[in-house]
Design brief:
Blueprint lengths: L9 E5 L5 H16 L3 E4 L26 E9 L3 H4 L1 H4 L6 E9 L11 E3 L22 E5 L13 H15 L2 E5 L15 H8 L4 E4 L2 H9 L4 E5 L6 H9 L4 E3 L5 H11 L4 H15 L3 H8 L15 H19 L5
Parallel strand pairs: 1-2, 1-3, 3-4, 4-5, 6-7, 6-8, 8-9, 9-10
Helix pairs in contact: 4-8, 6-9
Length: 338
């Protein structure tokens, strides 16, 4: 090192890192450190977040003597933080302390331990959040619409396996996931959707839908959104029949599809031509239904034939009624979420 060279710098970068906004600001700060060729190590305040990124470390494992800077990034900063996180603030107290994009909870006259402070907000200044400077790539947005149980199908239903495999598929694909649920009323809907307009308005804005529901498939295609339809009934059932009728090719049987099959089908649903193919299926459906209203008008003229209907009286009928009332009460009292 020549006399004109600056001393080697090494920074410990710390913070909450518990929201996506925190991560965007952290990414911007790390980019600037790389630009300045400052060696750095990232350690969140709490050890349980260390595994969030393979490059992060536990500050307790570091030798503070090798560091020149402590950079605290994003989120609130309160006067009790050094007491709450002594592994960081006490062991690295000799470093140059820099605060970036912080909300200073207490007035600066009472709490400002930083040698340099570029806060987001304090009693002296308010700045835009630093995430405005971070460029983040756009990725496909895929709806996940699941049915978790259909006891009508007995042992043929594979819904639990479907959920596990479809969530793993979306994780492998690296897409953004929007949870969807067709259940009504709103208090029973896992995602707070209460009307058909709400469901379809969300659905229409997606790049694709992954579903094991018939109406997940149908309402996606109706809106020109490609659907990866997975039939979770062993041997295939209504999901397969509907997709085949509409000539929608991206339907797979869960009990025979491999993970590679699922990956390839989702890739086809996200291809540039997939939306046009979905719109063509919707047009075919409307063509096939062209005579339905006339058929319904004829059906209204049919004569009643009670002899066609089986008897439903007896103890078993009363028990079924009681069970149905209980299920209705339970859905209203304990809405399903998740």
């Amino acid at each position: 090192m020549t006399p004109s060279d600056p001393p080697a710098r090494k920074a410990l970068v710390t913070g909450h890192f518990s929201t996506v906004g925190d991560l965007e600001v952290l990414g911007h700060v790390l980019d600037r450190l790389r630009d300045k060729r400052v060696e750095h190590v990232v350690s969140p305040y709490t050890q349980d977040l260390v595994g969030l990124d393979p490059g992060w470390v536990d500050a307790a494992t570091l030798d503070p003597a090798g560091f020149t800077h402590l950079i605290v990034v994003c989120g609130p900063y309160a006067p009790n933080y050094p007491v709450r996180h002594p592994v960081i603030f006490d062991r690295f107290r000799h470093c140059v302390h820099i605060g970036i994009n912080l909300t200073m909870v207490a007035p600066l006259d009472e709490c400002n331990p930083f040698d340099a402070l570029l806060e987001r907000d304090s009693d002296r200044i308010v700045r835009p959040d630093l995430s405005f400077l971070r460029s983040v790539p756009r990725i496909p947005v895929v709806g996940l619409c699941l049915v978790r149980s259909q006891r009508e199908y007995g042992d043929r239903q594979l819904h639990k396996q479907a959920e596990v495999r479809l969530r793993a598929l979306l994780l492998r694909a690296g897409v953004a996931v929007v949870e969807m649920d067709t259940t009504v009323p709103r208090q029973a809907n896992r995602n707070g959707i209460g009307t058909e307009a709400e469901f379809e308005s969300i659905c229409a804005r997606l790049d694709a839908v992954v579903t094991n529901r018939l109406h997940g498939t149908v309402l996606a295609l109706k809106n020109g959104v490609p659907a990866l339809a997975v039939d979770a009934i062993a041997g295939g059932d209504k999901v397969t029949r509907q997709a085949e009728l509409l000539r929608w090719p991206e339907v797979l049987a869960l009990d025979s599809a491999t993970d590679d099959d699922l990956d390839a089908a989702l890739a086809r649903c996200l291809a540039p031509d997939a939306r046009g193919r979905a719109m063509a299926c919707a047009a075919r459906a409307r063509d096939l239904l062209a005579g339905h209203d006339a058929s319904f008008a004829v059906a209204l003229e049919a004569e009643a034939r009670p002899d066609r209907r089986p008897p439903v009286t007896g103890q078993r009928h009363r028990l079924s009624q009681m069970a149905a009332r209980y299920r209705h009460w339970k859905r209203g009292r304990f809405p399903r979420r998740g």
